[in-house]
Design brief:
single chain; about 100 residues; mainly beta; Jelly Rolls; nine-stranded antiparallel beta sheet; globular
């Protein structure tokens, strides 16, 4: 899906790691949420309470999910993050992403 229709967008950006990672929250009619964001090269650790689907739209990074080895993810690929966990990304090139919060 290359675009979302009939959504509400939160105007205030989510800014992390001194502005090196930022996103905007999108809220759908059914109450589900996604964020669309951009990450500059660097290493970042995130904590999540809900399971997530991370779609890397462009760029390249390595991700280490709980209990796994590092894996390379490129634009057009995705990975799932379990609920109540932390994961680390080493962003190699500027990366565009979509994060879906799963219920």
């Amino acid at each position: 899906m290359s675009e979302f229709k009939n959504v509400n967008i939160v105007k205030l950006a989510n800014v992390y790691f001194d502005g090196k990672v930022n996103s905007r929250t999108i809220i759908f009619a059914d109450g589900s949420k996604k964020t669309l964001g951009f990450m500059q090269p660097g290493e970042y650790t995130f904590n999540t309470s809900e399971p997530e689907l991370m779609e890397i739209l462009a760029g390249e990074l390595e991700v280490q999910l709980p209990g796994t080895d590092w894996q390379t993810v490129q634009g057009g690929e995705s990975f799932n993050v379990p609920a109540n966990s932390a994961f680390t990304m080493k962003v190699k090139t500027a990366s565009d992403y979509c994060c879906s919060f799963l219920r």
